[in-house]
Amino acid sequence: MALGAVAEPPVRRRGSDYAQLSRRISQAGLLERRPGWYVTRIAFTLGAFVAGWVAVFLLGDSWWQLPLAALMAVATTQVAFLGHDAGHRQMFRRRGPSELVGLFAGNVAVGISYGWWVDKHNRHHANPNHEDEDPDVGAGALVWTPEQALETRGIGRWMAKRQAYLFFPMLLLEGLNLHVASIRAIIGREPNGGYTVPMRHRAVEAALLVVHTAAYVALLLAVMSPVKALLFAVVHQALWGLYMGCAFAPNHKGMPMPTAEDELDFLRKQVLTSRNVRGSRLVDTALGGLNYQIEHHLFPNMPRANLRRAQPIVRAYCVEQGIPYAETGLVESYRQALGHLHEVGRPLRG
């Protein structure tokens, strides 16, 4: 869907709109780092993550490992949120410490390539919901535009017709998809011999993924039977993928998708394509601060703890500028996302 019917007509000094908002945010001190908050968050999150694996070791060969695998999926996702914050340099201004936390959270703890994710996520932030520029809405297992749907064939077309119903079941495979994509990013090459994904520490990332995989398999097989170990891994990885998908799905799915014909400034490009999710601090924690998607996209390096305070400033400014500001409840955000997926498949069901 083009943005022509959504975006407001150009206003005076449009090019300075974001600068004015940025000054308000800066004057409120919301771009300043929160080292104390992050020390506490890192200690609590990694403490729970390590405690979970200690519990796996102590519980031994028991079927109670399966409920524990579900809890570890939650802990793993919370660690992944730390990697997200590090990738945006919300914790530290310097690249070195940010990369150190990102490599530990991504490659060592979770088992995905930090360098691949940063490259992919930065491209998403640069052009959110842009079919040709945003890797998150490129045609794949799911399609995001009627044009993408009409290009599907075989099993892909069958899935596109029913993708709204298949969305949550397919998220159970998202964890596996992230692991596979990480490996492909590290070893994948172009026909000319160059790597497909730019990465600063390719050898280190490869080694850390090997360490993660070896430690994961060794721990499970050391404390439980092969059958229980396999079931633990299935439950853990499936629910981790589901949780990750549920955290990211409300942010842009079903929002306008700009094309090359839409000329939007930075402020409007980020606000019009993003959706916030209302809720308490529990929602903030469960979604890793991603429920403030508009504020996060406008100020990616803003510490997570400041997003809640930035929201009323950004919302009020959008009202001043006549820019639609999308905000809804969590359940309604999923309804809108699924409604979009269902509508995209309509040409195939005709």
Structure description:
The protein has 350 residues and is mostly helical. The chain has 17 helices and two strands. The two termini are 19 Å apart.
Largest sheet: 2 strands, parallel
Strand and helix order: HHHHHHHHHHHHEHHHEHH
The tally of beta strands, per DSSP, is 2
Whole-number mean pLDDT? 92
Question: What structural class results from the helix and strand content?
Answer: mainly alpha
| Net shape | globular
Low-confidence residue ranges: 1-14
User: What value does the Rg take, in angstroms?
Assistant: 21 Å
Fraction of residues in H or I helices: 55-70%
The amount of beta strand, in percent, is under 5%
- Counting DSSP H or I runs of 4 or more residues, the number of helices is 17
Q: Termini distance?
A: 19 Å
Adjacency order of strands in the biggest sheet:
1-2
Q: What secondary-structure arrangement, pairings included, does this model have?
A:
Layout: H1 17-27, H2 35-59, H3 65-87, H4 95-110, H5 114-126, H6 146-150, H7 154-161, H8 163-171, H9 174-187, H10 202-223, H11 226-252, H12 266-272, E1 276-277, H13 281-286, H14 293-298, H15 307-321, E2 327-328, H16 330-344, H17 346-349
Primary descriptors:
mainly alpha, 65% helix, 17 helices, two-stranded parallel sheet, globular, 350 residues, 1% strand
Short note summarizing the structure:
This protein is an all-alpha fold. 65% of the residues lie in helices and 1% in strands.
